[in-house]
Specification:
This protein is an alpha/beta fold. The chain has 3 domains: about 140 residues, no CATH class; about 90 residues; about 60 residues, no CATH class. Helices cover about 55% and strands about 15% of the residues. It contains 14 helices and 7 strands. The chain starts with 10 loop residues before the first helix and ends with a helix. The relative contact order is 0.10. InterPro entries: DUF4351. It holds the Pfam family DUF4351.
Length: about 325
């Protein structure tokens, strides 16, 4: 077993970086769609609208989805559904789910959505891009745009010279996959990718945003993480940065996030105990393995629990990948 513990909630950094750099993401991954859009007009994330159509989707899966309203150059509004498929393994019903989301958007809001998918898995053969069925009198062929991050392995030089933030995102993702059993090499790449942010001359906020992504996905064993931090602090001092080190700031923010998770976990366990009775060690352990977003979902769901069976059913339906 690898000495590196993989995080299961890769959706969080993807959602953050998509929100921070949405136009750049579109330019990097889907340039043909970008050509339709008037970026002089503000775009809008339709999170509430997406929650309405995704409420019945499978629970326990890790997705990063964004429904975004943009404006076309001719003046009409255009809805974009951008889905990041974060599952480690290909999903059999993926194309059907893309169609279902598109249909629900059209059915509920009377808006067609340009459907786009970013595939993060490690299976080179899995490339879903359509959903169809055909009968003598009825046919459907739904196609959607896809990019496969693995394809960028052969375009590494392109990534290195690109100033688009998503070049860094893809590089971090690929090196995380490639160093799954090699923590020392991961540490080397993590430092190299972060140093690249400074070499590109990025602004402080961009460095912090991309550092957060790299730091979140390229997790290291504790001993190597400590080595990395020392190396990074020394690097920033040598660069004579005029602000508190990026590492310290992000470490503080990450500490706040982890502290929030611990507090939420404690509260949920206490509420469950009052709601459904004594929790076994196995159930407690399962709850402690949930991500912060899953804990928050459980906090809402437990209001309807009346017995231990309700909790067990919820945990079964919300298995972490």
């Amino acid at each position: 077993m690898s000495d590196v513990n993989e995080r299961t909630d890769f959706d969080s950094p993807w959602k953050e970086v998509l929100e921070a750099y949405f136009p750049q993401a579109m330019q990097f991954f889907f340039p043909e769609t970008v050509a339709l859009i008037d970026w002089e007009r503000p775009y809008e994330f339709l999170d509430k609208e997406f929650q309405q159509i995704a409420r019945e989707a499978e629970q326990g899966k890790r997705y990063a989805d964004k429904l975004v309203k943009v404006w076309r150059t001719q003046g009409q509004e255009l809805w974009l559904l951008v889905h990041v498929e974060i599952q480690a393994q290909p999903e059999e019903n993926f194309a059907e789910r893309m169609f279902t989301y598109s249909f629900r958007i059209f059915d509920r809001f009377h808006q067609p959505a340009v459907s786009l998918a970013i595939l993060c898995d490690a299976n080179r053969q899995w490339r879903p891009n359509s959903y169809s069925y055909s009968y003598p009198d009825t046919r459907l062929n739904f196609e959607f745009g896809t990019v496969k991050l693995l394809d960028y392995e052969s375009r590494w030089t392109e990534l290195e010279v690109s100033e688009n933030p998503f070049a860094t995102v893809v590089m971090a993702h690929l090196k995380t996959q490639q160093t799954r059993q090699q923590p020392q090499e991961r540490k080397t790449w993590k430092f190299s990718l972060i140093r690249r942010l400074y070499d590109l001359g990025l602004q402080e906020q961009d460095i912090r945003n991309l550092y957060r992504f790299i730091d979140w996905v390229m997790i290291l064993p504790k001993a190597l993480e400590a080595e990395f931090w020392e190396q990074f602090k020394q690097f920033e001092q040598e660069r004579t940065m005029r602000y508190v080190t990026t590492g310290e700031r992000i470490g503080y923010e990450r500490g706040k996030q982890e502290g929030k998770q611990e507090q939420t976990q404690t509260l949920i366990l206490r509420l469950l105990q009052r709601r459904v009775g004594e929790l076994s060690l196995e159930v407690r352990s399962h709850i402690q393995s949930l991500t912060l977003s899953q804990l928050e979902e459980l906090g809402e769901a437990l209001l309807d629990f009346t017995a231990m069976e309700d909790l067990l059913n919820w945990l079964q339906a919300n298995q972490s990948e």
